[in-house]
Amino acid sequence: MNQGDKILVTGGAGFIGSHIVDKLVEIGYDVTIIDNLSSTKTKPDYLNPKANLIVGDIADYNLLMKIIPNVEVIFHLAASVGIAQSNYEMDSFTDNNCTGTAILLKAIVNSGKKPKLIVSTSNTTYGEGLYYCNKCQVNFHPKIRTNEEIEKYGFEPICDRCKSPSKSVPTDENTSLDCNSIYALNKKYQEESCLITGKLYGFPVVALKYFNVFGPRQSLNNPYTGVNAIFISRIKNNNPLIIYEDGLQTRDFISVHDVVEANILAMNNENASGKVFNIGSGKAITINELALKLYEIMGKEPKIGVNRLYRKGDIRHCIADNRKAKEFLNWEPKISFEEGLREIVKWSENEKAEDNFEKANRELKEKGLI
Fold first, then answer.
1. Partner of 216 for a Cys bridge, out of 119, 154, 337, 347, CB 3.0 to 4.6 A?
2. Quick check: 344 and 229 in contact, CB under 8 A?
3. What percent of the chain has pLDDT over 90?
């Protein structure tokens, strides 16, 4: 890639996309954004003024055909986000995430160009992560937990052979994709359809599988995604944190700045084409740990309710094995969990935070998902 090359970022006005846009502009690329502004409602103040924003939809084939013939790289981040919400708004999520991606791919194929496509996918496509059974001495990949299993064995997944307690181990890219939500299924479609189409038509595709991304610009008003932001919004509004299950479930938190670096490295690495990479820290943090650390950083007394309820489709543990990204992309995370938390908390101090958690919780109960 050369300075001045034209690059398209779908969803470039959103949380992760806007950070990628900033880095591309800083390096010297000519950046165009397509975003329907569904996540921000209006043009966000943080949007880089040196990028060309087109308010539009990736489902607009004619619009894409005007842009794609002129670009060298496409970063595809446009998507509806919200795991729990996707399980009762299946139509809109599938239309935005799957149909939109299909139209993007059709436009690439018909453009006469073969741009490099970097698609943002998700660790949710794995469902649960990998586990190890000490008794059987094997790794296994459990399916979605059921209420009956939880009532009998507790929240931790058990060995599917001997029914013994098991422990979480890092999940690599060879793990099967056993989706637990419509959102995860959408991301699986995006990942696989992009890779298949690239192979069929001979244009390079890289799939970056993000774990739990957090950082500045993450919505403080969306109660369905980004537990860090949800908790910050609750604390800012002096409402107690509500933790599902027992709070010992873990997540792999990765700074948005490390995610941006992975995207840039993938763009510039010819050997990355046709591959999928886990982009996660490789470190397990419990939800209880997250809650207490946020209260500490924000200087408030903890108010935490652990409800021991199971949200259908929630995973227990999924931690990245990121060795492949280190090997092929020469990428590794640089921002520590606490450093990243302190950054998002500082950013949030001057941001409006609408606490919509109770409304979302009611909706999930009404749908029978809790």
1. 347
2. yes
3. 86
Q: Which domains does the chain have, with CATH numbers?
A: 6-129+171-366 (3.40.50.720), 130-169 (no CATH)
Of the residues 29, 131, 183, 310, only one is catalytic, namely 183
**How far apart, in whole angstroms, are the C-alpha atoms of residue 100 and residue 105?**
9
pLDDT at 223: 81
CA 264 to chain CA mean position, Å: 17
Q: What is the pLDDT of residues 297-334, one digit of tens each?
A: 999 999 999 999 999 889 999 999 999 999 999 999 99
The yes-or-no answer on residue 201 being catalytic is no
The residue to which tokens 């109770």 are assigned: 358
Q: Which of 80, 87, 82 is nearest to 10 (CA)?
A: 80
Please report which residue ranges of the chain form alpha helices under DSSP H.
Answer: 15-27, 61-67, 83-86, 90-94, 100-110, 147-153, 182-201, 227-236, 256-268, 287-298, 323-329, 337-348, 357-366
123-137 residue pLDDT tens: 999 999 999 999 999
Residues 83-98, mean pLDDT to the nearest whole number: 94
